[in-house]
Amino acid sequence: MPDLILTPNIQGADDFYAELLAAHEGLTKPQSDALNARLVLVLSNHIGDRAVLSDALKAAALSKE
Amino acid sequence: MILGEEDKMNQASDKKVFEVPLYAYQRSPDQDTAAPVRRKVVVIGAGPIGLGAAIDLAQQGIEVVVLDDNDKVSFGSRAICFAKRPLEILDRLGCGHEMVDKGVEWEIGKVFFDDRQVYDFNLLPEKGHEFPAFINLQQYYFEEYMVNRVRALQAEGAPIEIRGRNKVSAIGTHPNHVTLEIDTPEGPYNLEADWLIACDGAGSPTRAMLGLDFVGRVFEDNFLIADVIMEADFPTERWFWFDPPFNRGQSALLHKQPDGVWRIDLQLGWDIDKEREKRPENVIPRLKEMLGEDVQFDLEWVSIYTFQCRRMEQFRHNRVIFAGDAAHQVSPFGARGANSGLQDTDNLIWKLKLVMEGNAPESLLDSYDYERVHGADENILNSSRSTDFITPKSEMSRVLRDAVLDLSEHHAFARPLVNSGRLSVPCTYDGSSLNTPDALTAGPARSRPGSPCADAPLGGGYLLPKLGDRFTLLTIGAEAPERLEIDGVAIDRLALDPTPEITDRYLGDAAGAVYLIRPDQHVAARWPAYDEPAVKAALKRAIGKE
Prior knowledge:
The complex is a heterodimer. By secondary structure, chain A is an all-alpha fold. Chain A is built from 3 helices and no strands. Chain B is α+β, with helices and mostly antiparallel strands. Chain B folds into 2 domains: 30-425, FAD/NAD(P)-binding domain (3-Layer(bba) Sandwich); 445-542, Glutaredoxin (3-Layer(aba) Sandwich). In chain B, strands 1, 2, 7, 8, 14, 15, 16, 17, 18 and 21 form a 10-stranded mixed beta sheet that branches. In chain B, strands 3, 4, 10, 11, 12, 13, 19 and 20 form an 8-stranded mixed beta sheet that branches. In chain B, helix 1 (48-59) links the parallel strand 3 (37-44) and strand 4 (64-67). The longest helix of chain B has 27 residues, at 364-390. Chain B is globular. Classes of the chains: A mainly alpha, B alpha+beta. At the A-B interface, helix 2 of A face helix 10 of B.
């Protein structure tokens, strides 16, 4: 099982970040929240691995564990 | 679920089954004795679970008296969705086919969000089972067929009776028996019982009289049930709406029952005036908005319910044993109430019989507690999760819920996350002290010790009717004696050919298999070949002697 990757892993990080911001441009707060929620679900499904997802939830919560 | 005060609104002149006394009060000779009569088993409650317990006892020759404070079957349709496992149990009790013949079978479900259908699904039940995945049937028919079964048993001389309008007003517990004070239309009388099974529902007066706990989670929500009679060309499918235009911010369910009756379930929220919402002048406009202005319908039954997810800490209290909603309560999503209650009595009765006949230690009954608490926890977990999806408890849980529904319209991956009820499936008793560790390592996991036996075609019939009521040694490509007797408990052999279904469900990659099957059709142990000492040890373990 692969571990959760917490070292730099995105090629062209600035381009990705700009694309993420652009996706939210012009959206209201509820529309943005909905987009983020859908994105989380799409990415979670792509990862699939339950252990990696649990680790990702912990990492996102900034837990020290 | 807790049902509110029920209103009968259909003014049709022909009486419905739930309006006719099916077990009218009759004076019992037990009311005229100087000293209280001692009965073997008393069951409190003539609902589906109480009747299930009583029929199981009676057809195995154990005397049972059922007491009910009413004299009719359930008022209104109430529970309507019955799953395959309880139907298999009812078949063992002699009334499964009546339910299926009358019931409505369905396999297609549709999910709607806002004003559109987001997807549909087919339950695609596995082939080669005698009973369907689900039927919809009004609880009053369900109880009526069970009462018919009681009458048939009585005609054969089985020791079973139902005493209508016998309301238990006090219970005394003793080390080896229970005393009961019972009110009747002709005054009170006392009765004793070796064993008492309480099947008196979520509000269990027995539980209250014994001062026992019933803790869990309250869900702050109200649901309106309306059963309507209509000539409509809606297909036989389960339709579930999240946030529809006709019930904004809430959910709705449409389900077909026999006799042109449709179940409509509308979530109402917490801060409502129940009495007002139940009035026909308020119910009818809601339904018209949902069904369309032109659809003609009559209201058969309307009720408002709230629910909790909770259970008793222990289901067995010495000689008093709780089953069904009296022991555990879940939300209606997933049809886990009556369906799990019948699995309670299925689990309990064979154990009680062995204990009463002196063939097993009383501690065998503690495994009822372990196994059915396990089942209740599984049901509470599943139904709580469904409820959390249907009624999001925070702003962000609603955002995530809506994201799942929006994605489900476009992408298959999101559909398994949609939770409008995880439909009842039988419990596997992993970890039970009655199981012998699995010795058939190449066998399919679905038939591991603790599992309910899966049905399979067998010659012109099916496997499950050949199992149950006694221990069975099921052999596939293996030799074994035709009959064994261990400590007074008989085991009969059933030899099977390795058909494709039997191979898939019982053999897996093994060359041969020997299964020890409990009287409730659950697997106690399994091996690649017959080994007499191993079978003896497993049988002793399965009856609580190890």
